[in-house]
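Hi R.,

Here's the chain you asked about this morning:
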Amino acid sequence: MDDVFCAGCGIKIQTENEEAPGFAPPGALKHDPVICRRCFRLKHYNEVQEVPMTGDDFLRLLSKIAEADALVVYLIDIFDFSGSWVPGLQRFIGKNPVLLVGNKKDLLPKSTNPNKLKSWLRRSAKELGLRPVDVLLMSADKNQGIDEVRQNMEYYREGKDIYIVGVTNVGKSTFINHLLRQAGAGDGEITTSHFPGTTLDFIGIPLDDGHILYDTPGVVNLHQAAHFVSEQDYKAVMPSKEIKPRVFQLNENQTLFLGGLGRIDYTGPGRRSLIAYTSNALTVHRTKLENADDLFHRQYGHLLTPPSRRTELPVLERYDFRTDELNTDIVFSGLGWVTVKGRGARISAYAPSSISVSGRASIIKG
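And the predicted structure, written out as tokens:
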């Protein structure tokens, strides 16, 4: 068919892939004007839908933000910081100020110190080359902290446009939908004529002062566990409610398995506590180090789940740590983390190459 472009966001219409940007059902082509399904949902239901985009395309779009004079609101997933981080973000957004918002705070145990968590987020962002004007916490799913974020957005934008940026599954669309409801978008229909025409695949939502809040597509970060496990297993991996810490007393040369996707070998010295902060549905299993390889080969996809069914055994990469903090988190991107109590522990961690593993000072007291 001849090229048709969405009258709402300007993206090229396609009718083949429902998951890709610009999708519209074939019947929509009979209407004038033609709008993509994402704009249709916004027009008729005041609802923004997530649209995923590959890394190169996403970074091409981000580079356009550098040409604007705007506030960038950058959403990251507190539970999966490394999997929700966009590498090199500062290079692509130029000198625009960034408000860093940690989402899904409701998943962390109530013992988590919010000030300590925000300090850790700020420090981690700085180490990765980003200096946010402020760091805030919220839960888009539970509608917690959104008023504070909205007020700070208004303060830091100084009458400018706003771009909301984040990877897929970070909660960006849920957050924007809350903003739409709070702004009273439901009091009147949002029509396609309200969307600034653009070929950048941004959707622009008008603000009261004539400026625009832009929703950007979610970048697909291949270090997210969501891209390694099935949809069914993802529900087990990603927590939907507050994490319940599980405490294990390990002797020297014992192993913890995080389902079939993560492994920690503790070789000493002495006996110490390891605390697993993962989805409550994720199986955490302890065994002797001498039995660990055999157990993995026999029970992958059975006792060690997820995965919920046995597939070809993944090749696991090894990461060695010696803890120098009083409490150290060994983080498995998208799976959670294991806190190792006490200094001087010798730890070897294993995960498939698509799941990054790192260490940090513990973000939860106790």
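The helical segments are 37-45, 55-65, 89-93, 114-127, 146-157, 172-182, 231-237, 289-299.

Let me know if you need anything else.
M.
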